[in-house]
Structures are given as structure tokens and as C-alpha cells.
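Q: Hi! First time doing this. I have a protein sequence and I read that you can turn it into a structure. Is that right? Here it is:
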Amino acid sequence: MPAWIQSLKKVLADEKAIVDRAILTHWHHDHTSGIKDLLQISPNTVVFKNQPEKSQSNIENGQVFKTEGATLRTFHCPGHTTDHMALILEEEDAMFTGDNVLGHGTAVFEDLAAYMDSLDRMQHQFSGRAYPGHGAVVDDGKSKIQEYIKHRHEREQQVLSLMEKDNAGKGSVWRSMELVKTIYKDVPENLHVPAEAGVVKMLEKLELDGKVVHDTDSDAWRPSSKASL
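A: Yes, that's right. Below is the predicted 3D structure, encoded as C-alpha cells:
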């Protein structure tokens, strides 16, 4: 049995406590795979998740969970995943940010447009610490979210500026991997494929914004007239 379960069993025994509810921020396996172990030692625990599985209970946006000394308010913030939820700890004016905001590096996302919208809304929900799903606690959570937003806007502008240049005599027409090889030229080539996935998500958002056009026949991208406005 994993060490964390052994530790949990000891704490529950020492405190004469039970796990009444377990709240999942999203479906990724590093956030859900421990539930089976938890239910083995605490079969009456109710598991909550947005877009729940059959044996789980749903989380609605704005739902409140209370226990002695703590009040959690849920906040639906898709982008990293469609079911992603953050939790505002009312007593601290803090937020458990799940994987939308991390304690190190930047987050990945399924849908960049949804993710950017979520970041914008998240920054107005609290003013204190951010407790991320990975990495260290962030003392100024709101500033970290604003840093994420700024970084994403800068990366978008970098892509747009590059696409406005001539691509090896082909005009301003680019394939996603060509953008990756230019933007990430100092990054080892074995990382270019995962980097391309992020670039494609960005291009899809820019297409929604009307700033780039995707030629599906050639799988190439070019800036639209709106990109320079």
C-alpha cells in the first residue's frame, strides 16, 4: 500500500477522525488514481468531481463545502481540462488552484481560449495565497495568475510577429512545426513534438480571435488582416 495511505491511516487513528468527503480538481490520473486506495480504508467517503464518474458526486460551480475551521467554495475554471475546478478557502482568502496555476513553471492546457478566460476570472476570486496541485505554495496568488496571463499574451505576440515574416521564400505561410523549430531553436529536438502541441493550441485560439487563418488542405497557417490591427 502506498506510503501516503499509511500516513493517512495513522493520522486518522491518532486524531480519531474520518474522511467524510474527497474533492477532485480534475480527471488527470495523478489527481484521481489514489481514490481506490482511499476507499479501501474509508469506504464511506463521498468523492466529488465536476463531470463525475458513475460512483462519484457532481460538483457545481459555487458549491460550498464546510468543515470545522474551513469553508471551501468551488470555482469551475476549464482550460487545463474541461472539468477543472479550483477551490477558494474563504477563511484565508486563498485558492487551491489545481493544475491551472502551478508552483513552478507554467501549466499545459487542452483549450487555450478557455484557459485564458479562466485565468482572467480566477484572479478576481481571491487575494491571498495560491495552493497549487504541483510545486510550492505561492504567497501572492493573484500576481502569479497575472504573470501567467502576461506570459501567454507575450507568447501569442511572438508567434504572430514571426508569422508576419517571410518563411523561406513561401511568404507568411507557416506549418506548426516550422514555428516550433524557429521559436524553440535552442531547445533539444526531442522536445519539439510536445512543444508543437502547445503551439497548435495557441494557433487554434488565434484563429478563434480572427488573427490567423488555417488552410486545412495544406495544414498551414497564415496571419489574417486582423492580426496587424
